[in-house]
Amino acid sequence: MTSRLDWIQQELDGLKEAGLYNHIRTLSSPQGAWLVVDGKRVLNFCSNNYLGLANDPRMVDAARKIVDKYGVGPAAVRSIAGTMDLHLELERRMAKFKGVEAAISLQSGFCANLATVPVLVGKEDVIFSDELNHASIIDGSRLSGAKIIRFAHANPADLEAQINAAKGSYRRALAITDGVFSMDGDVAPLDKIYEVTSKHDVMLMVDDAHGEGVLGAGGRGIVDHFHLHGKVDVEIGTLSKAFGVVGGVVAGSPLIVEWLQQRGRPFLFSSAATPPDVAACIAAIDILEGSTELVDRLWENTRYFKAEMKNLGFDTGHSTTPITPIMLGEAPLAHEFSRELYNEGIFAMALGFPTVPRGKARIRVMISAAHSRDDLDKGLEIFARVGRKLSVIH
Ligand code: PMP
């Protein structure tokens, strides 16, 4: 039988032949240092649960208590009947945590980028975008209708050259960079980028999805890390990684927040975050403001794991964050490595082209404060075994 949808099957077959098909694994356990993946208990080196908050009893308790009071659903978009005092409390607390004047919460980090870029620039404008920026920045940029000019990765000199080349051709300009790049774990040179954007009067937006809860004092993020308070126009954050829940945040000036309330389409046309999500996010801020213990442990684990992997002879790339790529070269080797790790009891993702450039395939290890020293040692022992078996190390 033929149908108007047969082309989809052909596309899917094409993905499988090209080795680009996403095989989605199923978890039947909470997030943590260990997971049950497809029925097998494995050490978790895949999640963005940097601080181990996704299943922290204090977070679970906050979510449980608010369900008794406010139920589970917002039942409306924020601008109609979906704004609860809880949302406003999260926004106030987040602004204070990040040292900015105002913040607005959205349903996810992806939504935050989709909402923000189109309210800042339009058809007559230009976006200068790091060539490795996240998909949600790219999609938000496309939605805006502005001209998109890519600059070389983490390269302020190229950003300046692109700004100079575009001079006079636009009304407004916005430069956007990820804070921490999710494939390599490198940090954007935001101080140098700011020098360029302020000199040329270009608005500056940073997506701190992998920097929040990780960089800066007590996990306050990349702006705090570089002491750029009051200088970066817009900070995008996610509550889905270090904060352990789900949600997005836009932080900056009260003007930007008010403008998003009026014009941000995911704010206006998509339902608000649920009460338990919001309450858990507030609990995460309580935890981070109360102690640096989790952030300190995350960094201790990160330093230990990276140093030991280097001692074993692995190439861990240029990462300076908990995102730890294990560089392997060609994609088939990375996939075989990942399969062997899973067989031995480690869940760690292989990344190949087109997610990363050809010849730069890797295993990506995500370190968490939830890992104990024993967990990391177990991981190192298995990496060493698989590395020797596949002749990656000797
Ligand atoms: N920005 C970056 C840089 C990300 O890595 C991600 C998540 N992969 C997002 C935004 C989207 O965040 P969320 O999962 O909260 O939608």
Describe this structure in words.
This protein has 394 residues and is α/β, with parallel strands linked by helices. The protein has two domains: 128 residues, Alpha-Beta Complex (Aspartate Aminotransferase, domain 1); 234 residues, Type I PLP-dependent aspartate aminotransferase-like (Major domain) (Aspartate Aminotransferase, domain 2), CATH 3.40.640.10. A seven-stranded mixed β-sheet has the order 3-9-8-7-6-4-5, with helices on both faces. Strands 1-2-11 form a three-stranded mixed β-sheet. The protein has a three-stranded antiparallel β-sheet with strand order 10-13-12, with helices on one face. Strand 6, helix 8 and strand 7 form a beta-alpha-beta unit. Helix 5 packs parallel to helix 6. The longest helix is centred in the C-terminal third of the chain and has 20 residues. The model has no long low-confidence stretch (mean pLDDT 97). The structure holds 4'-deoxy-4'-aminopyridoxal-5'-phosphate. The site of 4'-deoxy-4'-aminopyridoxal-5'-phosphate has 13 residues, from helix 5.
Structural class: alpha/beta
The first-level CATH class of the largest domain is given as Alpha Beta
- CATH architecture call of the largest domain: 3-Layer(aba) Sandwich
Q: Name the CATH superfamily classification of the largest domain.
A: Type I PLP-dependent aspartate aminotransferase-like (Major domain)
Name the hetero compounds present: 4'-deoxy-4'-aminopyridoxal-5'-phosphate
CATH topology tier name of the largest domain = Aspartate Aminotransferase, domain 2
Individual helix count: 15
CA-based gyration radius = 22 Å
Sheet with the most strands: spatial strand order: 3-9-8-7-6-4-5
What order do the SSEs take from the amino end to the carboxyl end, as H and E? HEEHHHEHEHEHEHEHEEHHHHEHEEEH
Distance N terminus to C terminus? 55 Å
Can you summarize the main beta sheet?
7 strands, mixed
Can you tell me the residue ranges where pLDDT is under 50 for at least 5 consecutive residues? none
Percent of sequence in beta strands: 15-25%
Helix content estimate: 40-55%
**Overall pLDDT confidence:** 97
**Net shape:** globular
User: How many domains, as an integer?
Assistant: 2
Number of strands: 13
